[in-house]
Specification:
Layout (H helix, E strand, L loop, with lengths): L1 E6 L6 H17 L4 E3 L23 H13 L2 E3 L3 E4 L6 E8 L5 E6 L5 E4 L5 E4 L12 E4 L2 E5 L8 H9 L4 E3 L6 H19 L2 E4 L3 E5 L2 E4 L3 E3 L5 E4 L5 E6 L3 H9 L11
Parallel strand pairs: 1-2, 2-3, 10-11, 11-12
Antiparallel strand pairs: 1-17, 3-5, 4-5, 5-6, 7-8, 9-10, 12-15, 13-14, 15-16
Length: about 270
């Protein structure tokens, strides 16, 4: 199965970001991708602390674009993440969707873990997702033509118990659309992604934001496709790009047969 990731440097101009996303999808389709994945905040990268003026209810412009692209190019499409409006609330969900080649949504995941951290030597770089977001509550696993897919978003990557729940449902792929900070990305991004692949013996799909989005927001880049042995099959750089890799579905069985660690777990017994 040929998989492609669209690495972007999104900003706070919705229409321009949607155009960039479609160009990446078109390029990925031209290269023969059967499944294309977009990063977190692909449609709108807010300036830190500001609201999401483009937050939409299900069926809004962003989701219509995703559905149209999936059906037009005949691909499975991971809609990275985008702001989903919550009725009666000023907060939004950070939502990731998976669509089939007809444009039908097959899964919707709302980011569970919110990024509330103090970075920098003296904690001067403060990020408070909880000020603008509500946390999702459900672990989501999607059924596809190429096996089960577990959905997550960015900061979720630091919570291995989420992926263990997905692994218990026998997923073959785990998705991590992200906008990782440069401070943490340089030391943690690849380490954590490869760990999730190795310990759960599945492919990890991690499309990322990159570059300078605004005067106070920057992302690490280095999108990755990782196989069930923990080998990096493809990696992006520091600029917007499209990367792809052939994912050998047979490797899932081979790895799990040779090192059956998932069946050896004894926690809770």
């Amino acid at each position: 199965m040929r998989l492609a990731l669209v690495q972007m440097c999104s900003d706070d101009h919705l229409e321009e970001n949607l155009s960039r996303a479609e160009r990446g999808i078109r390029e990925a389709s031209r290269r023969g991708a059967e499944w294309v994945s977009l990063p977190e905040n692909f449609a709108f990268m807010r300036r830190e602390g500001e609201p999401y003026p483009c937050a939409q209810s299900p069926g809004g412009l962003i989701e219509k674009c995703l559905s149209g692209w999936a059906s037009e190019y005949g691909i499975w499409l991971l809609g990275g993440s985008f702001p989903e409006a919550i009725e009666g609330s000023t907060k939004v969900y950070n939502t990731s969707t998976l669509l089939d080649p007809t444009g039908r949504e097959v899964a919707r995941y709302r980011k569970i873990h919110l990024f509330d951290v103090d970075l920098g030597p003296d904690g001067e770089d403060k990020y408070r997702e909880s000020a603008r977001f509500s946390a999702g509550k459900a672990v989501v696993v999607a059924e596809t033509s190429f096996g089960k897919v577990g959905l997550s978003v960015c900061y979720d990557l630091r919570f291995p118990e989420l992926y263990r729940e997905q692994a218990a449902e026998k997923v073959g792929f785990m998705t991590v659309p992200s906008a990782f900070m440069p401070e943490t990305g340089k030391d943690h991004w690849e380490v954590l992604l490869r760990a999730r692949a190795i310990e759960n013996q599945c492919f990890v799909v991690a499309p990322a934001q990159c570059g300078q989005h605004s005067e106070n927001r920057k992302s690490y880049g280095r999108s990755m496709i990782i196989d069930p042995w923990g080998i990096v099959l493809a990696q992006g750089g520091d600029e917007p790009c499209v990367i792809e890799a052939e994912c050998d579905l047979g490797s899932l069985k081979r790895v799990r047969r040779s090192v059956p660690s998932l069946s050896h777990r004894r926690i809770g017994i």
